């Protein structure tokens, strides 16, 4: 497998976009789950008397099991994105095609770069991403991607919240 390196600001912006895609898609998946849905976690062992001890019910939406489910094939969602030029900053950024009104590049090579960067980022930061996503944050894209990528944050912004 060829490994991308992100040494220039131009290449680095695709890494930011990959991080943004991951966090946004996770948050969208979490928001789509009924907040009342629960999952049992803990030990499923039965003691000699036939009782199960050590089980707890937790909200399913931000459970580790659900987050890992969402991560399966998450980078393939890059096909739903388009490369656009931000009207204010003039920087090239990836945005979900269904929410942007700006025409952009949806070519296979362009979106393959985003998918590849997404897979690389996920491989490098999966554990941190799962841990971060377990709790709610005011601006998850900015908070997580800035934490993982450092102070170089051009173009990081959350997508509009889905209600």
TrEMBL record:
Pfam families: DUF3456 (PF11938). Residues 17-148 form the DUF3456 domain. GO terms for cellular component: endoplasmic reticulum. Belongs to the canopy family. This is DUF3456 domain-containing protein. It comes from Toxocara canis (Canine roundworm).
